[in-house]
């Protein structure tokens, strides 16, 4: 039996919302949505600010339905506008014809005079287009809203007012600004609502839920089986940081592209792990111009995966690559790597593969991060290292700050040019103490060595430069 025979994905969450044409939507009240509903009791004007796909339009439609169904105590005429390239006043005239008579010669102030005694809630989507083209009219309109207790305004825009123009702070000040962004708990609820289990008691679902319970004791992960908990957390963090929040999560769920979740549902066993997620993210990076935190890690992962590796070794490289490329808040030590692939490999298999990859210098363990990484360089948490040794060395924070300044300048030079540089700073407190970043261990009682293999790193940097030079020809 395939997962697709047991699980149905709720497509009603996936579509883009147009507040003019869509009548009703399934909506999950997030913390942000509750905050916005509460704010409407105290403010005349709300601005919902968030990137594409963060659920702003869905909230506007949800708010309209709450009012129509008398589920909240707001008795208003609802006027909906989706901004386009037309002038704001013209769009306003067209939208309020159901309430007042208008003609094409009327000014904005004449229209506002006509509606000042009516109870109206304006819902305006894509509000940024008006800011770009009709700033003076918008300023007059928002000033009118703020002075009129009968009229409320809720707008949705993709960035703060001052991102459109620096002098829009005055307009922004007339709104209660709500940043539309889901936290992990909200995103998990949205994912859970997307899953409909046709047969909950099947052995297929029970088996993967049993595996999930060995990875996490959070019950909510059981409701999104066969998504692995690590993959779920990575999806939420990555799509919030780099893509379009809710919309990208739904695109992932319904995608039949390589690594997409709907493709995975055609399988008959196993968990959707970080390895499958890597394949899907690789597809996205091929078609979207994403500004990655660590492009170097992306290049390294491709180079590693093009090597002669076993399937388990490639799975481990893919999992570590996701953490490195997107700088996720996930640790992947030996125990966590076993949990990451609990559905397919034993602890002995994982340990053996890790040893092989380390012997090839394909991965390294970063003690300060308690996690494996693809890159062995001077990417060391110096603050943590030095603060742990502060009492031993009898040094002050001022000394540490001075060391950081010189060290980071040298580190930047090292990473850019690949030259062998030793970072060293001496302290004269109760004696001459040294902190050294080096590829050699200095064994004495008056120095600390933070060890890194500079020679390997220099050679790798040179290899990468050669690869890029070739690619340019």
Kindly describe this structure:
With about 475 residues, this protein is α/β, with parallel strands linked by helices. The chain folds into three domains: about 1-10 and about 185-290, no CATH class; about 30-180, P-loop containing nucleotide triphosphate hydrolases (Rossmann fold); about 380-460, no CATH class. Helices cover about 50% and strands about 10% of the residues. The protein contains 21 helices and twelve strands. It has helices spanning about 30-40, 55-70, 90-95, 110-115, 130-135, 135-145, 160-165, 170, 185-195, 205-215, 230-240, 245-255, 260-265, 275-285, 295-305, 310-325, 335-340, 345-360, 380-395, 395-415, 455-470, and strands spanning about 5-10, 45-50, 75-80, 120-125, 150-155, 175-180, 195, 365, 370-375, 425-430, 430-440, 445-450. The strands form four sheets. It has a five-stranded parallel sheet with strand order 3-4-5-2-6, sandwiched between helices. A hairpin with a 3-residue loop joins β10 and β11. α15 (about 295-305) runs antiparallel to α16 (about 310-325). The chain starts with 6 loop residues before the first strand and ends with a helix. Mean pLDDT is about 80; it is low at about 410-435, about 450-460 and about 465-473.
């Amino acid at each position: 039996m395939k997962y697709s025979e047991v699980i149905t994905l709720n497509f009603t969450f996936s579509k883009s919302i147009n507040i003019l044409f869509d009548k009703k939507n399934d909506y999950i009240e997030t913390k942000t949505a509750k905050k916005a509903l509460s704010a409407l009791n105290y403010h005349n004007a709300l601005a919902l600010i968030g990137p594409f796909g963060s659920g702003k339009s869905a909230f506007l439609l949800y708010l309209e339905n709450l009012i129509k169904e008398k589920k909240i105590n707001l008795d208003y005429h609802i006027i909906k506008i989706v901004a386009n390239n037309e002038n704001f006043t013209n769009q306003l005239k067209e939208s309020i014809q159901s309430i007042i008579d208008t003609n094409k010669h009327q000014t904005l102030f004449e229209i506002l005079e006509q509606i000042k005694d009516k109870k109206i809630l304006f819902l305006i989507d894509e509000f940024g287009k008006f800011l770009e083209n009709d700033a003076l009219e918008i300023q007059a309109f928002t000033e009118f809203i703020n002075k009129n207790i009968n009229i409320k305004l809720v707008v949705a825009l993709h960035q703060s007012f001052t991102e459109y123009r620096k002098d829009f702070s005055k307009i922004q000040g007339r709104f209660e600004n709500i940043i539309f962004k889901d936290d992990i708990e909200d995103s998990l609820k949205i994912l859970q609502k997307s899953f409909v289990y046709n047969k909950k008691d099947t052995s297929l679902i029970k088996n993967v839920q049993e595996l999930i319970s060995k990875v996490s004791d959070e019950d909510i992960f059981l409701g999104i089986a066969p998504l692995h908990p690590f993959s779920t957390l990575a999806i939420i963090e990555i799509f919030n940081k780099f893509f379009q929040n809710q919309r990208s999560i739904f695109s992932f769920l319904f995608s039949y592209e390589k690594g997409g979740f709907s493709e995975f549902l055609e399988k008959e066993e196993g968990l959707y792990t970080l390895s499958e997620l890597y394949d899907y993210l690789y597809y996205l990076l091929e078609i979207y111009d994403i500004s990655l935190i660590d492009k170097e890690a992306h290049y390294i992962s491709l180079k590693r995966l093009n090597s002669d590796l076993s399937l388990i070794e490639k799975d481990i490289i893919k999992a570590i690559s996701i953490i490195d490329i997107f700088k996720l808040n996930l640790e992947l030590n030996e125990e966590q790597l076993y949990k990451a692939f609990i559905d397919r490999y034993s602890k002995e298999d994982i340990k053996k593969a890790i040893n092989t990859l380390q012997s090839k210098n394909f991965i390294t363990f970063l003690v300060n991060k308690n996690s494996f990484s693809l890159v062995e360089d001077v990417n060391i948490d110096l603050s943590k290292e030095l603060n742990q040794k502060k009492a031993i060395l009898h040094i002050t924070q001022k000394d540490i700050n001075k060391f950081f300044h010189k060290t980071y300048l040298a580190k930047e030079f090292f990473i850019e040019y690949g030259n062998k540089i030793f970072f060293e700073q001496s302290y004269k407190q109760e004696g001459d103490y040294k902190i050294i970043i080096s590829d050699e261990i200095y064994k004495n009682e008056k120095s600390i060595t933070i060890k890194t293999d500079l020679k390997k790193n220099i050679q790798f940097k040179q290899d990468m430069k050669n690869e890029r030079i070739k690619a340019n020809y």
